[in-house]
């Protein structure tokens, strides 16, 4: 089911790019997904369910799979459409680096509001 939805989204992106290409657009950027399993909601859900505050790997795998398909689409369009320049923006790795090594990106303050 997830794969079918991904194919639907990739098809919609391709249709959209072709439409604006037909209107004269030649430079575009398509942005992939961040690590969806590391979103605060998912990490909080994991914590509430007693699984710690780790990222949900399954969601991250889906994001990576979608990003691969979107990247392939960008390559295909650059090869098939004369004069177009589509770039793929891949935020996944940047966000994972921030999540894994937050101190690399500056100081931060952690506040604990627990009642204990």
UniProtKB/TrEMBL annotation:
Coiled coil: none annotated. It holds the Pfam family Lipase_GDSL. InterPro entries: GDSL (IPR001087), GDSL_lipolytic_enzyme (IPR050592), SGNH_hydro_sf (IPR036514). One of its GO terms (molecular function) is hydrolase activity, acting on ester bonds. Belongs to the 'GDSL' lipolytic enzyme family. This is GDSL esterase/lipase. It comes from Sesamum alatum. The lineage of its organism: Eukaryota, Viridiplantae, Streptophyta, Embryophyta, Tracheophyta.
């Amino acid at each position: 089911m997830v794969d079918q939805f991904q194919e639907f989204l990739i098809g919609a992106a391709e249709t959209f790019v072709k439409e604006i290409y037909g209107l004269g657009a030649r430079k575009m950027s398509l942005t992939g997904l961040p690590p969806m399993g590391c979103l605060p909601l998912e990490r909080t859900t994991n914590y509430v369910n007693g699984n710690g505050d780790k990222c949900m790997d399954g969601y991250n795998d889906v994001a990576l799979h979608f990003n691969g398909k979107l990247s392939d689409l960008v390559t295909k369009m650059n090869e098939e459409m004369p004069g177009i320049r589509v770039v793929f923006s891949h935020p996944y790795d940047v966000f994972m680096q921030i999540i894994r090594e937050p101190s690399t990106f500056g100081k931060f303050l952690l506040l604990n509001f627990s009642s204990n």
